[in-house]
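Dear colleagues,

For the upcoming journal club I promised to circulate an example of a predicted protein-ligand complex. I picked one with fe (ii) ion because it came up in last month's discussion. The inputs are reproduced below in full, followed by the predicted structure.
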Amino acid sequence: MAAKKNWPLWEIFVRSKNGLEHRHFGSLHAADAEMALENARDVYTRRNEGVSIWVVESKNITASNPDNNGELFEPAQDKIYRHPTFYDLPDEVKHM
Amino acid sequence: MSDEQIRSLEEQFEARIARDEKIEPKDWMPEKYRKTHIRQMSQHAHSEIVGMLPEGNWITRAPSLRRKVALLAKVQDEAGHGLYLYSACETLGISRDELYEQLHSGKAKYSSIFNYPTVTWADMGAIGWLVDGAAIINQVPLCSTSYGPYARAMVRVCKEESFHQRQGFEIMMKLAQGTPEQKEMAQDALNRWWWPSLMMLGPTDAASTHTEQSMKWKLKRKTNDELRQQFIDQTVPQADLIGLRIPDPDLKWNEETGHYDFGEIDWEEFWQVVKGHGPCNRERMNARVGAWEGGQWVRDAAMAHAEKKENKKVKQAI
Ligand SMILES: [Fe+2]
Ligand SMILES: [Fe+2]
């Protein structure tokens, strides 16, 4: 027999109600996308936790490397002029 | 990396945990942290999966439809808990197959409590009330453990557990209020499950090897003895309430400490069961391995079907 092929891993995203975004709930193994959806329904929405499910095969996700967090995220730290509090306005200015 | 660099990384790592920061899968972590987490999380996942077996035994014989749907839902939840935990464990770079292989070969442990038999319907009550009760006490502190995927899985698990305990207590309560035979059945189940439930909270602090490290990594927030005392203090009044007797002649309220004093636990029995000599160790593993091997052709067929569909899609696209 050929080398045993295992069911691939899928990442599961669930929208808990309309108006909210899909959020990562966890992962599971399934033979294909359809089965991943069915299993996700059983594993992650047994108590009305969702109204919509996305499944993405885990190997299709590219993640940033925490080792690069410095160069990726630190530049935003000193850009305080991106925040409204950076700007000095007289107290008399209302609604701004 | 030099030893010194590793030491400094380790110090930073411990400091992050001390600041209550979470560790996520791709973060650097000491090898020992990774190994300890794989061991504890997989042991936990295995316990959820093997824990379905003693209860699955009673699904078809539940005394009413109400009891049957509840037990079925509970056992299904336990399967879900196993899956949350396996996938959290896989984020540490171990495959599901390796995890199963460790369980099936006996290399990995699962909670010893599931090596006791479920001989009457009252055992479903005792398990929900006591075993899930003790599990909740063990698990609630893990909702704020340091490893992110484990903590998130535990939040889901804990939310679902409270129904398990309540349905178990309801079974015991109804039996205790029933005919003398039914009450006797409930008492007998309590007699058999009480001591193993106390053991579930782990060896005494004096005999426990991992406590200090586990505290630092927030895998533990209270010691085994503290958790056990908490379990006893909360369970005794519940037994009183439904008129059942805790099978411990030394059990009595201690006004001074504000806790119950209790009798000696038979740790020899505990270690025997851990080592594989419990009443059902072999039966449980046979059932588990049999289910896994018996399902192999289904998994293969599903995979072959998925590949066929995928190929068809590719061909149509050309
Ligand atoms: Fe569970
Ligand atoms: Fe449970």
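Two points we might discuss: Chain B touches chain A at residues 24, 26-28, 73, 76-77, 80, 83-84, 87-88, 90, 95-97, 152-153, 160, 299-300, 302-303, 305-306, 309-310 (CB under 8 Å). The two ends of chain B are 50 Å apart (CA to CA).

See you all on Thursday,
B. R.
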